[in-house]
Automatic annotation (TrEMBL):
Keyword Glycoprotein found: no
GO MF term (any one): carboxypeptidase activity
Name recorded for this polypeptide: D-alanyl-D-alanine carboxypeptidase family protein
Ranges in coiled-coil conformation: none
PANTHER family referenced in this protein's UniProt entry, alphabetically: D-ALANYL-D-ALANINE CARBOXYPEPTIDASE, PEPTIDOGLYCAN L-ALANYL-D-GLUTAMATE ENDOPEPTIDASE CWLK
Keyword terms of this UniProt record: Carboxypeptidase, Hydrolase, Protease
GO biological process, one term: proteolysis
Entries under InterPro entries matching the protein: DD-CPase-like, VanY-like_core_dom, VanY/YodJ_core_dom, Zn_M74/Hedgehog-like
Amino acid sequence: MLVNRDRGLDPVDYAPANLVAMTDIGISSMNEHSLRAEAADAIVAMFAAAEAQGIILDMTSGYRDAGLQQQLYDRAVETDGPDYAKQYVAPAGHSEHQTGLAADISAPDQEPDCILDTCFGQTQAGQWLAAHAGEYGFILRYPEGLAGTTGYEYEPWHFRFIGVDAAAAYAASGATTYEEFVAASTTP
C-alpha cells in the first residue's frame, strides 16, 4: 500500500482494524501510540535488537486517525505556512501514519536534541536504524535529497513497515525510494 501526496487512502477516513497499543506490548512511547499488529511485532524485535547493542529507541509517533492528521496539517499551515506544511506534513488520507504501518522513532535518552530533526540521521540510533531496519521489515521512507520523488523532505526518523521479504526485495532492487520500488514491482 503506497500512500503519499499523490496516492491517498480510500476512504479518506480509513482506519486499520488490527491496531495494537505499543505500551501494551512493552514499547516505550512518548505518548499512547499504536501500530498494526504485524508492524508492532516487528518493532518490538527491532527495538530489542537495538537495545542489545546499547541503543534505547522510543516511538515518537505511530498511527494517527484522519481527524488528528488533518489537525496536524492545519496547524502546520497556520504556524509555519503552506510551503512548510507541504514539505513535512500530510493532510488526512495522505499520511502513512493513518495506515498504522509508519513509526517515527527517536532515542530521547541518548539524543534529546535530535527528536524529529534531521540530525537524527547522524546519531548512533539513526545510523543503526538505517543499517538494520530492513532486517525487521522497515524502510527509511523519506531519504535525503529525494523529496522530488517522495513528496517530503528528509525524515531520518520516519520508518515504514513493508514486511521482511519486501524490505529485502527493496534493498536488493536498488530503488532509492518506496515510490520507485512500487512502480518497478507493478510494471509488467
